[in-house]
Design brief:
alpha/beta; FAD/NAD(P)-binding domain; Arc Repressor Mutant, subunit A; 7-stranded mixed sheet; 5-stranded parallel sheet; binds flavin-adenine dinucleotide; oxidoreductase; FAD/NAD-binding_dom; FAD/NAD-bd_sf
């Protein structure tokens, strides 16, 4: 069994991964930073090194702050492998052979694809900083061309400077929706309307949490951003129903405000968003325990205060461990890196605890106001548990009604629903239907999502070609041969 290629592999080069890799490498761990994207940055700082949007006022100061994380990474000696898609993390099958070979060290093997070739990497510890995904927002017509996620649209803006033209409607709730509207306005993009689905009741529910928000970094910039957008764009509040309509292409958005009459609005582009959820596929397929988070209404991997998961040798930091935002992700990345240094014997517990103090303070500050935002922007049940005719699994075109029917036939959870319906078995591996299928089953059974559970995922968590799999080295000799090239 080969010795480890690296002490630490960090998967994800967003704020959590960048900060963790820089700290771990600067303190002597041989560290590789892997990310499927062509360059570092993650979601928030996507394309920070070469975005075509050069006018800094458009993406705003929070975006450009990401550049400050690149220097420490460069200087740390960490190896950065952009364009690396990780599709599995597991104990080497022949771990016992390793013990027999006199290397009693526990290692992990990472399956990754890079430049169309698959390879296996052996490391002593893995930090998953895989971030967040947009929460699925299934409405009738969401699969029509012309309808996409606001986060996806923001990716087009950051990476290619692309923005929608014609009649543009934004719909949903959550900070990212307003941020994108603000960025578009700064880029000179005309927006026709924002259909705000934030339930009125959420304001009442969030009120008790206001004090924390008033002491948070979100207050000033959030309020200014909202006022800016509301001054320039028509906003329809309290939207309780939404449909995208059109023959083969989006033509209009039909919406209802409160319990008023339905109204229709011609539109060429509809950008949907109602929050982000942890990207848990890799952690789930690696066997990390996960739990239902009622506050954020989503599943997330279970971690301790240092980011350690239930799988030995696997830590997790950033939005992949629960939504906290970019600054919290950065601090959590550093805290996890310090614990990994202790686990790999580079520092002792006392040194770890002392070094973590400023990062814990930074994390506490960054998380102030989070509970207020989570409560205020919690999507309504109507948009989390769609009507029968709405497609919930886009890969297999399974409707909410079919899931309900399966429950009435005895299906009790998402994994059974897979065999009943094939939902969650397509190329996205449940990324676009997992949260919805759990909520639809829970509502139909009248139990909590915690009781229903989530898909049990297996590698590969990202599509890889059979040719890549077949080309994977088979023997020790092969391994050594491949790593030399
Ligand atoms: C589409 C989108 C846009 C967002 N835009 C903003 C914004 O503009 N401002 C803001 O404040 N917040 C934004 N957020 C919220 C964002 O989650 C956090 O602000 C922050 O980026 C979280 O940092 P992180 O380090 O935890 O993960 P992320 O920044 O999400 O980085 C995770 C990285 O891991 C990579 N990755 C995931 N799985 C794999 C794998 N299997 N193999 C290889 N690489 C993998 C991803 O491609 C990504 O680059 C956005 C979220 C989303 C989903």
């Amino acid at each position: 069994m080969s010795a480890a290629d690296f002490d630490l592999a960090v998967i994800g080069s967003g704020p959590a991964g960048l900060a963790a890799a820089a700290l771990a490498a600067s303190r002597g761990l041989s560290t590789v930073l892997l990310d499927e994207q062509p360059e570092a940055g993650g979601q928030i700082y996507r394309a920070i090194t070469d975005t075509p949007v050069r006018d800094r006022r458009v993406l705003g100061p929070d975006y450009w702050r990401g550049a400050e994380l690149l220097g420490p990474l460069r200087d740390s000696g960490a190896v950065h492998w952009p364009g690396s898609t990780v599709w599995s993390v597991a104990r080497p099958r022949d771990e016992d052979a390793a013990a027999a070979a006199g290397t009693s060290e526990r290692t992990l093997q990472i399956g990754l694809s890079r430049d169309g070739a698959a390879s296996m990497l052996t490391v002593r510890h893995v930090l998953m900083a895989t971030g967040a995904l947009e929460r699925p927002f299934p409405i009738p017509g969401w699969t029509l061309p012309g309808v996409l996620g606001a986060g996806a649209a923001q990716i087009l803006l950051k990476t290619s400077g692309l923005a929608p033209s014609g009649r543009v409607a934004l719909a949903g709730t959550g900070p990212l929706l307003w941020l994108l509207a603000w960025q578009y306005l700064r880029a000179g993009v005309a927006l026709d309307v924002i259909l705000d689905t934030t339930p009125r009741a959420n304001w009442r529910a969030a009120l008790p949490l206001l004090p924390g928000f008033l002491r948070s970094p979100y207050l000033g910039k959030g309020a200014k951003l909202l006022l800016d957008v509301r001054r320039k764009v028509k906003v329809v509040d309290n939207v309780t129903a939404l449909r995208a309509v059109g023959e083969g292409q989006l033509a209009a958005v039909v919406y209802r405000r409160g319990d008023e009459e339905e109204r229709s609005l011609a539109a060429d582009t509809l950008l949907l968003h109602h929050g982000v959820v942890p990207n848990l596929n890799l952690a789930n397929a690696t066997g990390c325990a996960q739990q239902w988070d009622e506050g954020q209404r989503c599943w997330r991997p279970t971690t301790d205060d240092w980011g350690a998961t239930s799988v030995e040798g696997v830590s997790l930091a950033g939005d992949g461990a629960g939504i906290g935002g970019a600054v919290a992700a950065e601090q959590a990345g550093r805290i996890a890196a310090l614990d990994i240094l202790r686990r790999l014997g580079r520092i002792d517990r006392a040194e770890r605890d002392a070094a973590a103090i400023p990062h814990r303070e930074g994390l506490e500050r960054a998380l102030r106001g989070r509970a207020f935002l989570d409560t205020l922007y919690r999507p309504s049940a109507a948009f989390r548990v769609p009507a029968d005719d709405t497609i919930v699994c886009r890969c297999e075109e399974i409707t909410a009604g079919a899931v309900r029917e399966a429950v009435r036939l005895g299906c009790s959870g998402p994994n059974q629903a897979k065999s009943f319906l094939r939902c969650g078995m397509g190329p996205c591996q449940g990324r676009l239907c997992g949260p919805t299928v759990t909520e639809v089953i829970a509502a139909e059974r009248g139990v909590s999502p915690a009781e229903v559970g989530y898909y049990r995922l297996r590698p590969p968590v990202k599509p890889i070609t059979l040719a890549e799999l077949a080309a994977l080295p088979k023997t020790e000799a092969d391994v050594n041969a491949v790593q030399k090239h």
